[in-house]
Amino acid sequence: MTRLSGETALGLAWIIAFTSSLAVLFVGEVLGQAPCVLCWFQRAFMFPLAIVLGLGLWWQDPRVGRYGVALALGGAAVAFWHMGLYVGLIPERIQPCMATGPSCTDDNQLLFGIPIPLMALVAFALIGLLSALSLKEKQT
Questions:
Q1: Measured between alpha carbons, how far is 60 from 78 in angstroms, rounded to an integer?
Q2: What is the pLDDT of residue 91?
Q3: 133 vs 5: CA distance, rounded Å
Q4: What is the rounded distance in angstroms from the CA atom of residue 70 to the CA atom of residue 45?
Q5: Longest Cα pair distance anywhere in the chain, in angstroms?
Q6: pLDDT digit string (tens) for 109-137?
Q7: Counting Cβ atoms within 10 Å, is residue 57 exposed (0-12), middle (13-18) or buried (19+)?
């Protein structure tokens, strides 16, 4: 079994962050689906991930993964809360979305039949894991 190198893990984390950033921009700007409050908070973690991880790769900074882990944990926490709202584990009265805006529990939170909060949670989890793996390689 081949081990994933730190640079490869970081590259995969950046690809996920960059693709996720482009995807939410496409959903919002091209498809016209306004993000809910929690989606905005998740974007606040995802967009910097694409930039920070990309710059870390460009500059060949082997320790940039620690920033990836920190940002991914923050984004995953928001996505986890969002998923709890979506599946009904968190009471709707705590829901941060406005009555006049998009809802965290409507069908507009589905993309290809998959809830957007679940996609975000998986993306943040993978980015965090890959960022952590990039730190496991012996630093020289």
A1: 30
A2: 75
A3: 8
A4: 9
A5: 54
A6: 667 788 888 999 999 999 999 999 999 76
A7: middle
- Judge whether 38 and 2 are in contact, CB under 8 Å: no
Going from N- to C-terminal start, the domains of the chain cover 6-134
- Exposure b/e, 92-104, CB count within 10 A at least 16 = b: eeebebeeeebbb
Q: Within the chain, how many helices (H) and strands (E) appear?
A: 4, 2
Q: Which residue has the higher pLDDT, 102 or 75?
A: 75
Stated as kind and residue range, the H or E segment containing 110 is strand 110-111
Q: Output the pTM of the full model.
A: 0.86
pLDDT per residue over 45-62, tens digit each? 999 999 999 999 999 998
Q: d(Cα 126, Cα 130) in Å, to the nearest integer? A: 6
Kindly state the DSSP code that residue 92 receives in the 8-state scheme: G
- Can you name the CATH fold of 6-134? Bromodomain-like (1.20.1550)
Q: For residues 35 and 51, what is the distance between their CA atoms, to the nearest angstrom?
A: 21
**Nearest C-alpha neighbor of 83 from the set 51, 56, 50, 110:** 110
